[in-house]
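Hi Y.,

Following your request, here is the sequence exactly as I used it, all 629 residues.
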Amino acid sequence: MDPAVTSNITFNETGLPAGTLWWAVFGGVQKNTTVPWINFTEPAGNYTLSAGAADGKAAWLGAPWGYPVSSANPSETIAMPQGVPSLLVSFDPHYSFTFEVNGPEPSSWTVQLSSTYTWNCNGLQSSCTTAPVGTTNGTYEMFAGGGIGTLQPLPNRFLATVNGSNFDQILTFANTSTNLTPIAFSESGLPRGAEWNVVANGLDQSSGVNTSLVYEPPGNVTFAYPPVGSERAFPSSGSVEVSGSHYTASYGEPFEAVTFAPPSQSVYDVTFRETGLPNASHYWRVAFGQSLLQSSSNDSVTAYSTNGTSAFSVLPVSSPFAPVPSSGNVTVAGRAQTVNISFSREFDVSFVESGLPSGVSWSVVLDDTRLYSSSSTITFSEPNGSYPYTVGGVPGWRVATGNSTGLVEVQGGNQSVPVAFGPFAYSVTFDETGLPSGTNWTVTINGSAGSASSPSPISFDEPNGTYEYSVTTADTDYSPVSGSLTVNGMAVYQTIGFASPMTYRVVFTEVGLPTGTTWSVVVGGVRYDSTSNTIGFPEPNGSYPFTVGIVSGFEVNRSNGNLTVDGSPAVEPLRFSSMPPGAVIWGLTATELDATIVGILVVIVVAVLVAALLARRRRRTATTPPPSP
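Below is the corresponding structure, written out as tokens. Let me know if you'd prefer a different format.
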């Protein structure tokens, strides 16, 4: 095996309540989960594997039989990548089978379970008991064989029903050198293990299990069922035509069913009637209670039942036909019952995946049946109809196009449903601190940019991964910020802290004022006072208007202007000079005083003129005689 080659193996769980913690150990690496699957990717080599659950249930690897990994056999070893791509981890109860030999004992013989698992029973053994190998409750088809020469097991095919306990089966080995065809007789109604008989062509054969095989040459075979104690058989007799070539076809020997019931109980016909199969060459079979019913030449099979409810299941026939319904219950309450079975042709319903990395396990549930795959295609077989589907979740991924749920319409042809996966995106949110309210700021990540006005956050949606980001502001006093963050299956919140902008000391210096004199400047609307010869305060870069306050008796060389801060401290020198003695009256300079006096004199002259004009008018009015009448 090439160690550079990697392969994937998926453990698929069944039998645990939803949300139960379980784990799988592969090559010494343990992974825990509460979902129904665990995936490993490993290079070529031999690996031990095991599994377990938090609720203490024993685990079984294989589907539905295979490697037990209970306390008695805690682990198994498989080869990668030659090993199977997926394993079923079953936590359901499991049961064993015991096969007992009646008659001549063969030197070796085998038993096969549902055409899949074979037990080898070697040596002159009167019984062969299997270890529990993952067999859960259900009905299984069993095949016995491997005798020496003409010494063969009877029956060589039978049903094994497991229902909460281990299963026992008696096998009779007999000489089958003649051209014999087996006929299976199955009974229901008797207690488990009760002995009953079938007389075929005058020969009596007894059995202690629910299925008995009688080997007969080609031709018409008549049979009868003697009563068992007080219980009588329904039907009590019958016949079947045996053709050696006919019954060696796909489903083997014919089956006949009998029901035993006491005289006090009435027995009624239960008929299963089929439609849809194209011709009589298709065998179809029904498991009803403990009986197996089979038909090839007729469109119906009949069983017999006392009052009560019994389960039935229709066994699969040759592809591409499927029975509807395939299982159910029949309730007999004082009259015969008929169950109609419709066989429909099946078509492929394929779900074709894209976007997932190679070897990642995914699943689809179609009409309540879930299938898993580590390849790109999952295929179901369905007859015409409408079927709901759900694409199972894959950690870190989502269905990127289309819906993860929907309906598939099967109408006389195969169907293909594309499923495109994309990385699941998680919220990535940036918050800022330190910016003045209303400042615009921008974040760029993974090729996308987002902007907001402080203090509003900026959000993105990103899949799992590590990303570089950069942050800038409209206010150039604040330096850009950069960094990286990792998205790993959850939302990410990143705080960006902006430092206050750099400030520089602004100093106004004065000369000319007596020590202790109060003077002031107003910068950007803020007044600063001092009794020393300096006024200083910090300011960031910028241009600031200023005004120098009036100091009585002094004039300043620059009473207003603009101060610029540009990356270094700024100094603004001021020179005060005193006015000449007597030049200040009422706090005014000589020039200001002259202007004031001139203004006052003008006002006085105007007032005198106005008063004289008004007096003259009054005198003229007083000396003028009144007009004649």
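The first helix runs from residue 590 to 623.

Thanks again,
Q.
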